[in-house]
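Many introductory courses stop at the sequence. We go one step further.
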Amino acid sequence: MRALFQRKAGVPELKTSRLRLVAMTPAMLEADAARDGSLAGVLGARLTGEWPPVDWEAHVVAMIVLQAAERPAAMGWHRYAVLREGRGKTLIGCVGGFPKADGVVEIGYSTLPAYQRKGFGSEGARALVEYLLRQDGVRAVTAQTHRGSAESIKVMERCGMAFVGDGDDPGTVRYRRER
């Protein structure tokens, strides 16, 4: 599966057979932070009662807004809304990547509970990994999870990543895929 990259109205998008990944703009992040349902209108998608994901951290959103202002060309790395296409669009999760040292990008991913164990997390994360590995200066993509998180480990393996050792926090592991 190769994801198609395109820009709609200047916003990077990745498209797979079942998903559309839309780079979160500062306006989208502000609408999401408002928690008033306006994100649905900005995205043109339905939001379920499960949104936002439990691991949607406010300090990460603030960092993304700051980085978008400082480095507009980096939009398309940090956070994508994962939309399931079909009869309309539904926001089902998010993926994103953060540059680390020496050409390494670390990714994260989250799928809402109703959409887990259906391959959506793997499909969205794989699209992002493939996109990132085609970018100038990126030589590897990594991800971390808790040692006992079998589902998250499966996502990393489905993205072509291999176990490389302990993660940054106690009880976590790191996986990596080279260019």
